[in-house]
Design goal:
With about 170 residues, the chain is an alpha+beta fold. It is about 35% helix and about 15% strand. Strands 1, 2, 3, 4, 5 and 6 form a six-stranded antiparallel β-sheet that branches.
């Protein structure tokens, strides 16, 4: 159990990369972990677009106002899917994205989850040729880290309620 908790705590947002390429096997391993996520009614609404070409990685990161730090990443992963008629789309996509981030950290790589909204969809879709009926859930620069934040937990016992709201101790 400690290995699993350590892997989760090792997942940190990394915003500085060496520029080194990411082995395809590592990206596939992270995507395998992403697709192991739970999914309501096993809908699995996710698909993933992986971009590794340097100029495309930079263009994608520059197109998102909070991802410019990723221009030196080795890859960008875009989790996406048809949101229409998938009631639990956001929950399913979040679970897959978090699995991907934990796997990336476990593989010794770094990443940061940059959220997407309706406003940013058109520009990103155009850059990667994604049809309008597909919703990009996140833009995730992935790379060899040039920084290694220490594992951490942000556990706060005061945020845990037992049996009823307001009961914060066992």
């Amino acid at each position: 159990m400690n290995d699993v908790l350590h892997a989760i705590q090792k997942r940190r947002s990394v915003r500085k990369f060496t520029g080194a390429p990411i082995p395809r096997e590592a990206l596939l391993a992270a995507l395998e972990a992403a697709m192991a996520a739970p999914s309501a009614r096993n809908a699995r609404p996710w698909s993933f677009l992986v971009v590794t070409e340097r100029s495309s990685v930079a263009a994608l990161c520059k197109a998102h106002p909070y991802a410019e730090f990723g221009t030196n990443a080795g890859a960008v992963v875009l989790p996406f899917g048809a949101k229409k008629n998938h009631r639990w789309f956001d929950q399913d996509m979040a679970a897959a994205t978090e699995n991907l981030l934990i796997a990336v950290a476990h593989l010794g790589l770094g990443a940061t989850w940059c959220g997407m909204d309706d406003e940013r969809q058109a520009v990103i879709r155009t850059l990667v040729g994604l049809p309008e009926d597909q919703f990009i859930f996140a833009l995730i620069p992935v790379g060899v880290p040039a920084e290694t934040p220490a594992p951490r937990t942000q556990f706060e016992a005061s945020r845990v309620h037992w049996e009823r709201f307001g009961q914060t101790s066992s």
